[in-house]
Amino acid sequence: MKFKKINFNGYHLNLNLKDDAGLSVVNEIFKYREYRIIENIIVDTDGPIVDAGAHLGFFTIYTKCLNQNSKIFCLEPEKDNIKILKENLANNNIADVNILQMALADKSGMGNLIISHDSHNHRLSVGGAVLKTQNLDIQKINTITISDLINKYQWPHISLLKMDIEGAEKDVINSLSVHDFSKIKAIVFEYHENYNVNHGVLEKILRKNGFGVEIFPSQFDKKMGILFANNKKNK
């Protein structure tokens, strides 16, 4: 295990990183402030924030440091990540967080999670299928759609949908109905073009559904970056 102490917005944090991937995510969030475009949304939120692909809880902790009254729903399917996520929240006195051991997807039910060699790059298999010719470590997991999540908790809207779901954002966005889009005020996600996801295609879908879109390519990997979409119809 690796631990890192950082100071952010007046909070003194001690974070269990688990591995080098954890350190990379912490640096992206707290050092390079890759999500700074949404900080005003977090501070002024009037509804739930969904942290899909919550990993070890770093984005949720970042959000709570900006607004301790924010209502956050963490979706993380991998059982070992969930354990450390809970430890990180408890060790840093982060409360009022709902943790759901499941993945955001285009269909609710069961899915196959491909386990990577690190803690951060686990991903849903494409279309729920697994290539039997590959020696893959697979976990069966629960999945849920945005529509079913909204209906489950009877939300009038989602203030912010954050996704870091290793390419599955394509399937999630393609699955959203006009009604689903109308319920979401803002979306931010890390796009991964190495998983055959063209962020330009997703940008067009979002613009067609009334969102303004901004793209922020990663300074470290040109195949990755942050996409921010603000719903101009839902103010």
UniProtKB/TrEMBL annotation:
<dbReference type="InterPro" id="IPR029063">
    <property type="entry name" value="SAM-dependent_MTases_sf"/>
</dbReference>
<protein>
    <recommendedName>
        <fullName>Methyltransferase FkbM domain-containing protein</fullName>
    </recommendedName>
</protein>
<dbReference type="InterPro" id="IPR006342">
    <property type="entry name" value="FkbM_mtfrase"/>
</dbReference>
<dbReference type="InterPro" id="IPR052514">
    <property type="entry name" value="SAM-dependent_MTase"/>
</dbReference>
<feature type="domain" description="Methyltransferase FkbM">
    <location>
        <begin position="51"/>
        <end position="211"/>
    </location>
</feature>
<dbReference type="Pfam" id="PF05050">
    <property type="entry name" value="Methyltransf_21"/>
</dbReference>
